[in-house]
Known about the structure:
This protein is α+β, with helices and mostly antiparallel strands. The protein has seven helices and five strands.
Amino acid sequence: MGRISKRHELNVNGVVHEIEAETTTPLLFVLRNQLCLNGPKYGCGYGECGTCTIIIDGLAARSCTIPVGLAVNHEIITLEGLSDGGRLHPIQKAFVDAQAAQCGYCLNGMIMTIAALLDRNPSPNDAEIRNELRFNLCRCGAHYEILEAVRLAIASMAQTRSGTL
């Protein structure tokens, strides 16, 4: 028996998109191939590496393991959705300022994971940051710069909240 495509409505980065896909198609494939969003990357296909991380309903999640049919009626944010009118999100800016990239392949997962963390805990300590990032693989060894970028983002966001910027 052949597979059947179905129409789905997805709320991605604040815009509702009507897409056609099999219900079991990984959300990552729809985000990249149909919506042309290149933030989430294909890494392992098993939810192990973190390169495909998105935020869904406020939680960091691996889009390679989420069937598109289960993403309907949920708010999805990709790396592209963090910026505001072309202005980088403080986390994105901090990663640039700290030069927290070597090859850059892991950055989507790192940034999206930290964005979800800072939404629920605006002042995490180093142990909490490391714990959150422990399942995001970076083979280049930019770990110190990544930690520095998170600290910069925390400070920047705290200044914005207190109105000192």
